[in-house]
Amino acid sequence: MKKALAKELLQFIEKSPSTYHVIENVRRRLLASGYTELEENARWNLVHGGKYFLTRGGTSCIAFRIPEEATRGFMLTASHSDSPSFKLKENPERAAGHYLQLSTEKYGGMLMGTWLDRPLSVAGRLMVRESGRIVTKLVNVDRDLLIIPNVAIHMNRNANDCMKFAANIDTYPLFGGADAKDSFLKTVAEAAGVQEADILGHDLFLYVRGCGTVLGAKKELIASPKLDDLECAFGCMKGFLAAKPSGSVPVCCVFDNEEVGSQTKQGAA
Fold first, then answer.
1. What parts of the chain have a pLDDT lower than 70?
2. Residue 33, C-beta contacts closer than 8 angstroms, at least 6 positions apart
3. Which sign does the torsion angle of CA 168, 83, 38, 40 carry?
4. pLDDT of amino acid 90
5. Which of 141, 172, 208, 247 has the smallest set of CB atoms within 10 Å of its CB?
6. pLDDT for the residue 1
7. At what angle do helices 227-242 and 2-14 cross, to 10 degrees?
8. Rounded CA Rg of the chain
9. Are strands 120-130 and 133-140 parallel, antiparallel or unpaired?
10. d(CA 127, CA 103)
11. Can you give the pLDDT at residue 157?
C-alpha cells in the first residue's frame, strides 16, 4: 500500500511541472470524483450531499462537501501549489559570447546548488490571442532543454568551500549556441501548439527534469523534485477525498505563493 501510494505521489509530481499544472491535476481528480466546479463570481446553488470546488488564477483551489446532516463546523486542511524555482523574465534571452542564456529571477526559498548540472526545462502558462479573445494555455516543453552548468574546479578553486551562489550571476540557464537567438519563444509556442505571434505574455518557470524514485536498503526512501510542497498537496487531496462523513464540512485548500509570503489574491492570506 505504502509503495503504491509513493508511486502515485511521484507520478503526480511528474505531471505537475508548474503550479498551473498542479491545480489542473487537482481539478481533474476532483471532477473524476464527482465534484462540481463553481465560478467564484456566480450565484451558487448548494445542496446537502453536494461536492464542490473552485479555482482562482489557475494556481489555487478550494474544495468542500456539504454533509447530509446538520454541520458541526468546518474541518480544513491546507497546502500550497508552488515550489522553489527560477521564474523567467518577460524577454529572457541573454547573449553571452558564443552562447545564449535565459534571464531568470529566484523564486522562493531554494537550495540553488541542487539546480546545477542537471537537465532542466520550462513550464507554466501563456496568454494567447485566439479568435479575437485572450485565452490561457498551459505549456510544458517536455524535453531536456536547459542546464545551469558548474565551472571546472581549476576555474573556481573555492567550489568545495561553502560556495555562495549569486542569482543572475552563477545561475543563468544555458539555452544554446549563439545561433539559437530569437528561438526561445518559438520553442515554447510549438510546445503549446500555438503561433509565436499570438503569444501576448507568459508566466514560465524552470523545473528539474527526470522522475522521482523510490530508493534505500528496503525501498523506504523517496527522492524527487518539488517535494516542497507537492507531497503535502497530494496528501491533503488524498485524505480529503477519502474522508468519511463526520457532520462537519470538510474543506481542502491548495493555495499559491506560500514561497513568497502568501500575500497574493490566490495566497492563503
1. 1
2. 51, 241
3. negative
4. 94
5. 247
6. 63
7. 120
8. 21
9. antiparallel
10. 20
11. 85
Length of the chain: 269
d(CA 99, CA 81): 34
Nearest to 189 by CA among 201, 178, 177: 201
Task: Tell me, rounded to whole angstroms, the distance of Cα 89 from its chain centroid.
Answer: 17
Entry pTM: 0.94
Please report, to the nearest 10 degrees, the dihedral formed by the alpha carbons of residues 262, 114, 15, 263 taken in order: 10
